[in-house]
Fold this sequence. Notes:
Layout: E1 4-7, H1 21-25, E2 31-34, H2 43-61, H3 69-98
Helix pairs in contact: 2-3
Amino acid sequence: MKIxxxxxxxxxxxxxxxxxxxxxxxxxxxxxxxxxxxxxxxxRGVRALxxxxxxxxxxxxxxxxxxxxxxxxxxxxxxxxxxxxxxxRRSLAIDGARQPQLALNDGRH
Length: 109
Protein backbone atom coordinates (compact mmCIF):
# COMPACT_ATOMS: atom_id res chain seq x y z
CA MET A 1 0.00 0.00 0.00
CA LYS A 2 1.48 3.31 -1.04
CA ILE A 3 1.28 5.93 1.68
CA UNK A 4 1.39 9.64 0.95
CA UNK A 5 1.60 12.78 3.00
CA UNK A 6 -0.10 15.67 1.25
CA UNK A 7 1.14 19.15 1.96
CA UNK A 8 -0.51 22.42 1.11
CA UNK A 9 0.67 25.73 2.38
CA UNK A 10 -1.80 27.21 4.85
CA UNK A 11 -4.58 24.73 4.07
CA UNK A 12 -7.32 24.79 6.66
CA UNK A 13 -7.76 21.13 7.53
CA UNK A 14 -8.13 19.89 3.97
CA UNK A 15 -4.55 20.23 2.72
CA UNK A 16 -5.93 21.27 -0.64
CA UNK A 17 -5.91 25.05 -1.07
CA UNK A 18 -4.15 28.07 0.39
CA UNK A 19 -6.17 29.96 3.00
CA UNK A 20 -4.80 33.43 2.32
CA UNK A 21 -4.27 35.40 -0.86
CA UNK A 22 -0.67 36.26 0.00
CA UNK A 23 0.13 32.54 0.16
CA UNK A 24 -1.15 32.13 -3.38
CA UNK A 25 1.06 35.04 -4.41
CA UNK A 26 4.03 33.27 -2.84
CA UNK A 27 3.31 30.30 -5.07
CA UNK A 28 1.63 28.03 -2.53
CA UNK A 29 0.70 24.75 -4.14
CA UNK A 30 -0.19 21.26 -2.93
CA UNK A 31 2.71 18.82 -2.74
CA UNK A 32 2.81 15.06 -2.26
CA UNK A 33 5.55 13.29 -0.33
CA UNK A 34 5.85 9.55 -0.86
CA UNK A 35 7.69 7.45 1.68
CA UNK A 36 6.67 3.97 0.59
CA UNK A 37 10.28 3.28 -0.37
CA UNK A 38 11.72 4.40 3.00
CA UNK A 39 12.30 2.32 6.10
CA UNK A 40 10.95 4.69 8.75
CA UNK A 41 12.03 2.26 11.43
CA UNK A 42 15.58 3.56 10.99
CA UNK A 43 17.13 6.96 11.66
CA ARG A 44 18.33 7.04 8.05
CA GLY A 45 14.80 6.55 6.74
CA VAL A 46 13.43 9.29 9.01
CA ARG A 47 16.17 11.70 7.86
CA ALA A 48 15.27 10.95 4.24
CA LEU A 49 11.58 11.60 5.00
CA UNK A 50 12.46 14.90 6.69
CA UNK A 51 14.49 15.99 3.66
CA UNK A 52 11.55 15.17 1.37
CA UNK A 53 9.15 17.05 3.63
CA UNK A 54 11.46 20.07 3.75
CA UNK A 55 11.77 20.09 -0.04
CA UNK A 56 7.98 19.79 -0.45
CA UNK A 57 7.31 22.58 2.06
CA UNK A 58 9.73 24.85 0.21
CA UNK A 59 7.97 24.03 -3.07
CA UNK A 60 4.52 24.53 -1.53
CA UNK A 61 5.34 27.89 0.03
CA UNK A 62 7.26 29.22 -2.93
CA UNK A 63 10.00 31.82 -2.94
CA UNK A 64 10.52 35.48 -2.14
CA UNK A 65 13.29 37.85 -3.11
CA UNK A 66 15.98 38.49 -0.52
CA UNK A 67 15.13 42.18 -0.90
CA UNK A 68 11.43 41.61 -0.06
CA UNK A 69 11.42 41.61 3.75
CA UNK A 70 7.64 41.23 4.03
CA UNK A 71 7.77 38.38 1.52
CA UNK A 72 10.56 36.69 3.47
CA UNK A 73 8.51 36.98 6.68
CA UNK A 74 5.46 35.49 4.93
CA UNK A 75 7.63 32.72 3.56
CA UNK A 76 9.03 31.82 6.99
CA UNK A 77 5.52 31.86 8.46
CA UNK A 78 4.20 29.66 5.65
CA UNK A 79 6.99 27.11 6.11
CA UNK A 80 6.65 27.04 9.89
CA UNK A 81 2.86 26.65 9.80
CA UNK A 82 2.93 24.03 7.05
CA UNK A 83 5.45 21.90 8.94
CA UNK A 84 3.34 22.25 12.10
CA UNK A 85 0.25 21.10 10.16
CA UNK A 86 1.86 17.88 9.00
CA UNK A 87 3.77 17.06 12.19
CA UNK A 88 1.08 14.66 13.43
CA ARG A 89 0.97 12.78 10.11
CA ARG A 90 4.75 12.51 10.10
CA SER A 91 4.72 11.12 13.64
CA LEU A 92 1.99 8.61 12.78
CA ALA A 93 3.96 7.36 9.79
CA ILE A 94 7.12 6.92 11.87
CA ASP A 95 5.28 5.32 14.79
CA GLY A 96 3.49 2.95 12.41
CA ALA A 97 6.79 1.83 10.94
CA ARG A 98 8.21 1.16 14.39
CA GLN A 99 5.27 -0.91 15.65
CA PRO A 100 5.97 -4.63 15.76
CA GLN A 101 4.22 -6.49 12.97
CA LEU A 102 2.37 -9.67 13.87
CA ALA A 103 2.32 -12.59 11.48
CA LEU A 104 -0.52 -15.09 11.53
CA ASN A 105 0.24 -18.77 11.18
CA ASP A 106 -2.81 -20.39 9.68
CA GLY A 107 -1.17 -23.81 9.43
CA ARG A 108 -0.62 -23.69 5.64
CA HIS A 109 3.17 -23.93 5.42
